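forwarding from the other thread:

> can someone predict this with flavin mononucleotide?

sure thing
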Amino acid sequence: MNKIKSLDDLRRMKQAVESGIDIREKGDVPEEKIVQIRVAMATCGIAAGARDTMNALIEKVNKDNIHAVITQGGCMGYCYAEPTVEVRVPGKEPVVFGDVDTKKAAEIIDKYVKDGELVEGIIPMNFQSINQ
Amino acid sequence: MGQYKMHLLVCGGTGCRASESARLVDVLGEELVKQGLEKDAQVVTTGCFGFCEKGPIVKIIPDNTFYVHVMPEDAAEIVAEHVLKGRRVARLLYQDPNSGETIEDSKHMGFYQKQLRIALRNCGFIDPECIDEYIARDGYAALGKVLTEYTPEQAIDILKKSGLRGRGGAGFPTGIKWEIAAKNAADQKYVICNADEGDPGAFMDRSISEGDPHSVLEAMAINGYCIGANKGFIYIRAEYPLAIQRLEIAIRQAREYGLLGTGILGSDFDFDVELRYGAGAFVCGEETALIHSMEGERGEPTVKPPFPAESGYLGKPSNVNNVETFANVPVIYLKGPEWFASIGNERSKGTKVFALAGKINNVGLIEVPMGITLREVIYEIGGGIKDGKKFKAVQTGGPSGGCLTEKHLDTPIDFDNLLASGSMMGSGGMIVMDEDDCMPAVAKYYLEFTVEESCGKCAPCRVGNKRLHETLEKICEGKGTEADLDYLRNLSSVIKDTSLCGLGQTSPNPVLSTLDNFWDEYVAHVTTRTCPSGRCKALLHYSIDTEKCTGCTACVRVCSTAAITGEKRQPHVIHQDKCIHCGACFDKCKFAAINVQ
Ligand SMILES: Cc1cc2nc3c(=O)[nH]c(=O)nc-3n(C[C@H](O)[C@H](O)[C@H](O)COP(=O)(O)O)c2cc1C
Ligand code: FES
């Protein structure tokens, strides 16, 4: 094990390890201050590739340093459009996107989360959403 | 540390361990592997969540699902449903005691909403056996900052500005204590952490040592730098094996990283920490007794002055602080003294951890800002009195404290208000009592503890407390007189004034405060010889309702003292001179014809 010999060493060490608990830090942030993304992960979603979608979202969010928490949810009832992803940007109504593959996942982050531009594939909401 | 989509935080505190949480960790891990999810989710053993009564606790991150009473048998379902499909396991969710609703997100639990966690910031959040997780939470950064940016005087000044006061009982300003120890010149000084925690029902120091041991080590090192000591001791009771184990692991890891040892973080400051074990005598928590015990002498207190800061361990200046006090220190340096001083009220800054127990719905460990009211603690965090009963009193400060009553419900809780109300902060025990509790009996219970724990060195404490206890016993048995009440009061003040150490100086508090607040209850015991809450068995009065009695003679047959007589099929009578109040007739009667008063 390497010794930590200076305050700079300590800072580098922190940087190296902080991603490991980042998800817990985000869990503690009040809901109105963080982007919440929920991937439907029921059997139909998983069969349609929701797992890959979720991984892509996590990767993208980490890479672009976006303050977001990504959770998995049960079936939202849009089996025809799986994988589905619900995105709640603070101050806005939640939006559900359908047929989100890995490419579309990145697009949602780039356009909708970062710039507030709408992306194709929005499913009209008639269903309960995160925190309601 | 890898990137997991989900963390399953499993409480590894003493409470949850007692109900198999260690096995739960193993089984959850096995299930993840079995279901091919070990790369998606990580099982983390954490410190106490404070909700021990509902343990074992499992919290799922990032959705903050809070599962209670989780058994190893539940692991497969949690993994299959929650981890794989994102569906919460409803039967394991926490239920609000009042509304009966299940709560999915721990942020919405009344128990946590009013809390502010500073000393407990990492408990239930990080793996206490992993120094990396502590570092990820800015661990040891305060030590680094102090060593590189401040002189000892400046660092002490910051602590003084924060307004931090000792959490071990007396509430002495911590910065001033450090300053005194710093000013006493000596070739060798010591830092001592008091982890003896003897108050019945209190377990905040245990939870911190178990859940966040590095914060204590870091603060001790800062203390060492400030006062010029390079050696620290943690005096911990041997009855805390898990806390000892976690502290040992933490010390080893800190040494491996060079965060304890010589030339810490490139400075010329050396510091190391060692554990010392106490044998669990309450009085050994008193700082002079603690130091004698460390020296291998009998654990008996001696008169102050000299204070430990002048002449402590081995006659050298020593700074003694409580575990919770230390746990507050690193955050103060990271967030600044102004931040800390902005929490709390005028003369009590920051937060206090309380162990909430007794007749309350949410039993557990809570941390709240100073100045919160008892009403908020009991009804919002505590979820109100159990079984919808009526609140009667709450004992704070353990055996050294007193009780607060309905009229104190809206008094802000801080060091000074508690003292003014005839109680004290103490280490933070809070035992809630309802209408069924008899206050003279409560006082008797605490005196029993004090009599047992008095070291016997000084007469007022050794003999006086015994007499107090005997008198209370007499009262509860219905043999007391009005003169006994005066006697209790007088003797109490003598013991307070003349005892050698804090134990005797505070032990009559439960008596005095119950006399003050529940005088009528005492009077009832000694005049009409009744116990208003029906607790004191000897004072119960059994009689037969002649309307309801069928003369079946069932009671006659169970009465061991032949106190019941009567003709068959005629109403019976209980002869009070022979009745020993055992309650056997009451239990036996099928017609509810026995009255108890
Ligand atoms: C009878 C008695 C028992 C005590 N027990 C403890 C204890 O268990 N833990 C503790 O920290 N302080 C205890 N104290 C208080 C210590 O003497 C001392 O004031 C304290 O450790 C100082 O730390 P602080 O300034 O950080 O509170 C006790 C005092 C008395 C009189
Ligand atoms: S020991 Fe698990 S919540 Fe306290």
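The two ends of chain A are 48 Å apart (CA to CA). thats all i got for now
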